[in-house]
Amino acid sequence: xxxxxxxxxxxxxxxxxxxxxVVLPGDPKAVPxxxxxxxxxxxxxxxxxxxxDGRLLVGAPAQAMAxxxxxxxxxxxxxxxGTDKTWTLGGSSFTPQELSAMVIKALVADAEAALGQPVxxxxxxxxxxxxxxxxxxxxxxxxxxxxxxDRIINEPTAAAMAYGLHNLDKExxxxxxxxxxxxxxxxxxxxxxxxxxxxxxxxxxxxGGEDFSEALARLLARRIAKEHGRDVTAHPHGWARLLEASExxxxxxxxxxxxxxALPRLPLGPHMERDVELVIxxxxxxxxxxxxxxxxxxxxxxxxxxxxxxxxxxxxxxxVGGATRMPVFVKEVAALCQRMPSRNLPPDExxxxxxxxxxxxxxxxxxxxxxxxxxxxxxSLGVAVVQAVGRQHxxxxxxxVLERGTVIPASRVKTFHxxxxxxxRLLIQVFEGEHSLVRExxxxxxxxxxxxxxxxxxxxxxxxxxxxxxxxxEVEMHVPHQQRxxxxxxxxxxxxxxxxxxERARAAMAELKFHPRDALPNATAxxxxxxxxxxxxxxxxxxxxxxxxxxxxxxEGQVDAEIDQARAMLLHTVAHFS
Length: 578
What we know:
By secondary structure, the chain is an alpha+beta fold. The chain has four domains: 7-207 and 294-376, ATPase, nucleotide binding domain (Nucleotidyltransferase, domain 5), CATH 3.30.420; 209-290, Actin, Chain A, domain 4, CATH 3.90.640; 381-512, Substrate Binding Domain Of DNAk, Chain A, domain 1; 518-577. The strands form seven sheets. Strands 1, 2, 3, 4, 10 and 11 form a six-stranded mixed sheet that branches. A six-stranded mixed sheet has the order 17-12-13-14-18-21. It is globular and about 90 Å long. The two termini are 47 Å apart. Residues 493-497 have low confidence and may be disordered.
């Protein structure tokens, strides 16, 4: 593939810190380079503040104001991406997208200054567990910064790309644990013959290093209240200083067993300051972090379960994100995964490096042309249905069509039925999530099928979901008895694809639209079994029939891992009786 003109960078837009990285077009080894900012540092604080002169500050200058003017500093806004929350600063209101755009713009300016070339595009990373609205908001932030970002990739997937780039000769299964400032992601992947295949992902979009710092700050606040009789959390300046001190203490406790915090003239109330000195041990901190550590367990187990792997089958446990430096986190992970985790890449930089590798792939860099990365759907996609409970019909239930963990691009179809006699319309409501009730999931769109035949209840309607790497979801509704098809297109990032790109994406998706039973390996296995079934009698025929029935059941379920397992069992049975 020929390289395209224009510099494309990779951006790790983090909750606490952000980074920008690039693979230079002429680099024969495609080594990702994390770019220093104007302060000569690789990490740019994801912070926006209002300066003394009324100008908006971004990064380190903004972070420096956090302890002196906390009321003029905004941070952790990534956690509100995709929501309607706004902040007021200097009389102006800002959305999470606008604040994130300022960070992206600063990163791009630093990259252009360092490289002496204009940046024309970016690949931006997001937590694997970000929903559609959060991904749309991230892309909008890049747009507001004036940088197209038509490729949004999951943070652990990016880290896996950076890791896999120079390990393509290995065959191994690994789990990537990404604990950043504000989010926790788990990704199970396999590297084989140049392919990095993501097999499952899980996470917590509101668990990160910031939560550990805050928990430690609240522990110290309780000590201060006991000693001085004052609630420091009620005083903005005092609480801001305590948070900053707790962040520093958290980092020091990763290296030492005990640390001392000196907080001279700490504001404890109106016109009241005290010199406060506190000693905190690693054991104290780890005790107060236990509720947070408990929250990392479920995503790890869920990802391993969805990926069909046990801890003993893992070849690597890779740590990504600055918060993974905490010894208690390493200890917890080692116990859960039954092996010591490793940091083959700088934990703060791995995601940005992977984003740069994806950018190199996008521009057609020759050194990465053999790298292939697949991803999975982080959430189940389905429709709202009515369920019969006794003689009643209850609405609002969720019926998955395309399950989480499905390798994308993918296409899945299910048949639903009308519930009322004479029904002439049907509302198809599309949701993403895992809850059995749609009200607990996120609605993505809806379409009303009109002019149905006024037939008895039970008329079939086939609903097919086709989902691609661009975040494009095509919902195809087919009414068999009318030979009629309607299509609903749901873009995770509306307006990002041109009409030509949209048409190309849909053409590619059309090739996915077949039932798994029609795939060549599955059809061949069934045909071989059918031919043998005719020849057999007695017990062998009964055993083969059971294997065929199990395979057909797996095909109807349309879960790839179950299909592969059932097909292997069927072929084993065929070989045994042949």
